[in-house]
Amino acid sequence: MIKRLVMTLVVLLFAITSLYPLLWVVLQSLKRDAEFFASQFSLPREWVWHNYADAWSKANFALYYKNTLIITSSSLIFGLAVCILAGYAFAKIDFVGRKTWQALFVAVLFVPSPVLLMPVFFINRDFGLINTYMGMVGPYICGAVPLGVLLMSAAFRALPGELSESARIDGCGEWRTFIKILFPLTLPTVATLCILQFISVWTDYMWPLIANTDPKMYTITVGMTQLAAKKFVFGYGPVFAGMVITTFVVILLYIVLQRYFVRALTDGAVKG
Amino acid sequence: MKQRALWRRGGWKRQTTAYIMAFPALFFFVLYLIYPLVIAFRMSLYDYTGIGPLTDFVGWANYKEAISNSSFIGALRNNFVLMGVEFIVSTVLAFGLAYLLFRGIFGWHVFNVILFLPYIIPLSVSAVIWSLIYEPTIGLLNQLLGELGLTALQHTWLGGTSTALGSVIGVWVWRTLPFNLIILFGAMIKIPGELLEAARIDGASGMRIVRNIIFPLTIPTIALLAVISIANDFRAFDIVWIMTQGGPAGLTEIASSFVYKVGFQENHYGYANAVAFLVFVVVIVFVALIALLQRRSFSSEKGESR
């Protein structure tokens, strides 16, 4: 019993180091700067909500939020659509060149991002895609492909062959069998991919940093760091508020979908 | 003959269907992954400032320059220090914590949720949080040390030559620990209960069970974590760039921040691509090495699959 208590205390200590920095941010986001300088450990004497208003309007977070929403949702929808389609083809049809493509998908999983940054930027420049949503989203769709197609085709392959056989006997065509019968059964894998793609696009910093030259195209992660660099102009309060705005969607989803999140993030890395 | 093979694979119609389905994915894959790799390699053989076509062919000169450049070697060394320290510290701590969770503690479910948090939040946010925590005058860490009366331990964490790299690594450990914890915890749960029961009946102590049963059975998982951390440690860019931009005096420079600097800030794109390719080669060599070691340790123990 005492042993168990001691063990719990050790874990509690680590839990505090995980949680406290985040709570600290939320607390400071509600203080005036003078109070932040004087006492960081106390609760705010008076709750200063206008830090959020400042971040939202003066520091342009409304715009950055809109950009992030557009970029994340289109990367999610298109990224998943192409992976599901290709996953079916790779699992169920023995087309010419299938093995080669699969080998390529595995081979590129270890390509470090610095190698791709510059050429992808130049490709976008040559197509006139700098400072456009299309130019931002394209590489994210591509980013979903290798792992997404591998996971989706594994999911389709795991379904019993009789399913599609009996559908064909009932007169279902290839497309109908795929969309009406097989696709709904792969939804757990689709959910995993959704979470992976959401996290990787929403939290990305490097690509939004280099992909654009126009500050109007910033996403929240880049906007937030720009705000942090300008803390002497806007004050510390809005910086903390900006961090909360950037993070709370992710934390909210994590708390609601906790089990799926952990499974997606671990599966994604382990199989990848 | 060829006709026949095609027929066996479902004929032209199914082949076409397959390519229609796979085309969108393959299109983006080739456009933004395969083609860029080709361009990157070609660019690495030229002197290129980012304007106009590639004309100034220099062969392997960029690679030679990279290998003899002390700031690149320094960045690579920092990257290895980061990788090594992060992997060892984070895995040891994660192993200990996973074992405690595995043994059963009060409220383990709540702890599971909380302990995973640092891995969920955007890396850029972590970087800003921690640069404010490390801030010398108003930062949380120095304030806390002041309150505790430990003023001797106060530092200019990110600005000091002796503490900069360590401070950055600390954040990286904070970030990667939850992931390693979850994976190791998952591996421990999969250990057959009879095995542990039998050992306990034989009178083996907790420490001996860890050393002789749990640790050996989680070695494949630890090797996997090593591969993942090698692949991931090049994502430390967000942290390094936001917290220190590689400073002071290049002491926290890592490969990806070096590439970014040389490429996008100094416009030496050819050289930057050569550096990026060298990093790529290093990653591949390391991953292959770990795979090889793992296979050997397996075949020497027993012919277990996976």
TrEMBL record, chain A:
Keyword field: Cell membrane, Membrane, Transmembrane, Transmembrane helix, Transport
Domain named ABC transmembrane type-1: residues: 65-257
Transmembrane segment boundaries: 5-27, 69-91, 103-124, 136-156, 177-199, 233-257
Membrane topology: Multi-pass membrane protein
The keyword Transmembrane is assigned to this record: yes
Localisation: Cell membrane
Main location: membrane
Span of the signal peptide: none
InterPro entries the UniProt entry points to: MetI-like (IPR000515), MetI-like_sf (IPR035906)
Protein family membership: Belongs to the binding-protein-dependent transport system permease family.
PANTHER family per UniProt: ABC TRANSPORTER PERMEASE PROTEIN MG189-RELATED-RELATED (PTHR43744), SN-GLYCEROL-3-PHOSPHATE TRANSPORT SYSTEM PERMEASE PROTEIN UGPE (PTHR43744:SF8)
Designated name of the protein: Carbohydrate ABC transporter permease
Gene source species: Cohnella silvisoli
Lineage summary: Bacteria, Bacillati, Bacillota, Bacilli, Bacillales
Automatic annotation (TrEMBL), chain B:
Organism: Cohnella silvisoli
InterPro entries assigned: MetI-like (IPR000515), MetI-like_sf (IPR035906)
Lipid bilayer topology: Multi-pass membrane protein
Protein name in the entry: Sugar ABC transporter permease
Keyword Membrane: yes
UniProt domain ABC transmembrane type-1: residue ranges: 76-290
Residues annotated as transmembrane: 20-41, 80-102, 114-134, 213-231, 271-293
UniProt subcellular location: Cell membrane
Keywords attached to this entry: Cell membrane, Membrane, Transmembrane, Transmembrane helix, Transport
